[in-house]
Specification:
Strand content: 15-25%
CATH superfamily: minor pseudopilin epsh domain
Number of strands: 8
CATH topology: minor pseudopilin epsh fold
CATH architecture: 3-Layer(bab) Sandwich
Number of domains: 1
Distance between the termini: 86 Å
Number of helices: 1
Strand order of the largest sheet: 3-2-1-5
Order of helices and strands: HEEEEEEEE
Helix content: 25-40%
Radius of gyration: 25 Å
CATH class: Alpha Beta
Shape: elongated
Length: 188
């Protein structure tokens, strides 16, 4: 009789291999989770910054005031500027303001709706300071209509300010972005 050489793994080898895989997964999974959260914050911040640039350029191009205001229902047939003070999680709208109607409120008969900003991604909170509270208005020269104050919007998740992001819109209308260890998640 011929004896075949059987090849395979012994039980200790299998357990050692599974232990190594478990250790590697315990290190990799939190990193993936952190990466997903970082990407969500960056995506949300980039969406808003793109919309700020859009609103500012439309104000200059159209030679009219353009307003970015929070809305509790931006996808409604006739959206309105509304929402809880300084919380922008539900979305926003961007419109050309016809100065003959009620200022700083979207009027579907006179104003031109330019864009609808969607609600935040899951787990992200967008909060503004009192300068940016209800809306951010851009003048025909691209500056903000907020005086000499800086408008601030913070983006945070369950990790708090240490991993948060922030947009500061200077009086000249130019947004600056800040990442990691921002001053606060609630700019008040």
């Amino acid at each position: 009789m011929h004896q075949k050489n059987c090849r395979g793994f012994t039980l200790p080898e299998i357990f050692i291999t599974l232990g190594i895989i478990a250790i590697m997964l315990s290190v990799a999974v939190p990193s993936v989770s952190t990466m997903i959260k970082d990407n969500r914050l960056a995506t949300q911040l980039n969406r808003v910054v793109a919309d700020i640039h859009f609103a500012r350029s439309e104000a200059v191009k159209r030679d009219m005031q353009v307003i970015l205001c929070r809305s509790s229902a931006p996808n409604a047939a006739t959206p309105i500027c509304s929402g809880t003070a300084q919380v922008w999680d539900t979305g926003y709208i961007i419109f050309v303001n016809d100065a003959t109607t009620s200022p700083y409120a979207y009027n579907s008969g006179a104003d031109i709706l330019l864009r609808r900003g969607q609600p935040t991604l899951p787990g992200i909170t967008m909060l503004t300071n009192s300068v940016w509270n209800i809306n951010l208005e851009f003048n025909t020269n691209g500056s903000t209509h907020e005086g000499s104050s800086t408008a601030i919007m913070s983006f945070c998740d369950d990790r708090g300010r240490s991993e948060g992001r922030q947009i500061q819109v200077l009086p000249n209308g130019i947004p600056k972005m800040y990442a990691d260890n921002i001053s606060t998640c609630t700019p008040g």
